[in-house]
């Protein structure tokens, strides 16, 4: 019974997301994807954890895949991902010495990307610190040869939660602006540390250029692994 109610609630949320998405206007800047598609190159979106809802709403790339946790909350989000064209690869990161499916999800993403289809990774998720690039995006890029395309998605009107990542929820009828940095090709950058640093530098610079006030608020958190505020604090700040 509980599972059935959660299933119904998930699809109701998906309907709301479709209406929410239809109310928003989208702008894309410095888009490298047409060239990469023409060259037959697979690519991986590298985004901040804070921008994941915006990324789902603005998505225009059919067949894109992203990781989603195996939590009950994520069960509600999977239908919304599906109706916006995002395939959910289920899994979570290792906690307390126990892998919760993260490796399996990354393996599914690898198989998906090898087929020439796009993938999306929140490079500093799921626990931060903000703007820190974890190994996943580099490992996936190395194993598949896919190009990394860092991008930020900024909503003109949004809620911002006082969480570790300053999670952003676009408001209906807002303008969503997606801006890309130049693609990062793993074939010409053999050092993993250099590639991770390049992804981070690209995202930091994009946010500084496209969302300077938020970048200024977020950067002190990114430089403090301990995080100044408890991660459970999710009071919203309206912008």
- In total, the number of strands is 10
Identify the overall geometry: globular
- Radius of gyration from CA coordinates: 17 Å
Question: Quaternary arrangement of the chains shown?
Answer: single chain
Helix- and strand-based class? alpha/beta
Question: What would a concise description of this structure say?
Answer:
With 239 residues, this protein is an alpha/beta fold. It has helices at residues 2-23, 33-38, 52-58, 72-83, 102-114, 135-144, 192-210, 212-222; strands at 25-29, 43-47, 64-68, 86-90, 119-122, 147-155, 158-161, 168-170, 175-180, 236-238. It has a single domain (2-238), classed as Glycerol-3-phosphate (1)-acyltransferase (3-Layer(aba) Sandwich), CATH 3.40.1130.
Give an overview of the whole structure.
This protein has helices spanning 2-23, 33-38, 52-58, 72-83, 102-114, 135-144, 192-210, 212-222, and strands spanning 25-29, 43-47, 64-68, 86-90, 119-122, 147-155, 158-161, 168-170, 175-180, 236-238. It has 239 residues and is α/β, with parallel strands linked by helices. The chain has one domain (2-238): Glycerol-3-phosphate (1)-acyltransferase (3-Layer(aba) Sandwich), CATH 3.40.1130. Helix 4 links the parallel strand 3 and strand 4 (86-90). It is globular and about 50 Å long. It starts with a helix and ends with a strand.
């Amino acid at each position: 019974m509980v599972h059935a109610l959660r299933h119904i609630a998930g699809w109701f949320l998906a309907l709301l997301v479709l209406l929410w998405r239809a109310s928003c206007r989208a702008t894309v800047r410095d888009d490298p994807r047409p060239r990469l598609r023409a060259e037959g190159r697979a690519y991986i979106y590298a985004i901040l954890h804070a921008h994941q809802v915006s990324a789902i709403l603005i998505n225009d790339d059919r067949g894109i895949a992203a990781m989603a946790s195996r939590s009950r909350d994520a069960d509600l989000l999977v239908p919304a991902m599906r109706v916006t064209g995002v395939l959910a690869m289920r899994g979570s990161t290792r906690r307390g010495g126990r892998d919760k499916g993260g490796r399996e999800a990354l393996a599914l993403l690898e198989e998906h990307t090898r087929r020439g289809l796009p993938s999306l990774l929140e490079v500093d998720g799921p626990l931060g610190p903000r703007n820190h690039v974890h190994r996943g995006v580099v490992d996936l890029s190395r194993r598949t040869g896919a190009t990394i395309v860092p991008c930020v998605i900024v909503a003109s009107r949004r809620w911002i939660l006082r969480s570790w990542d300053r999670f952003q929820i676009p408001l209906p009828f807002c303008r969503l602006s997606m801006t890309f940095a130049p693609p990062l090709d793993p074939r010409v950058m053999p050092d993993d540390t250099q590639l991770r640093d390049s992804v981070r530098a690209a995202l930091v610079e994009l946010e500084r250029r496209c969302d300077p006030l938020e970048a200024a608020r977020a950067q002190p958190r990114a430089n403090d692994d301990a995080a100044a505020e408890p991660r459970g604090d999710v009071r919203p700040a309206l912008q």
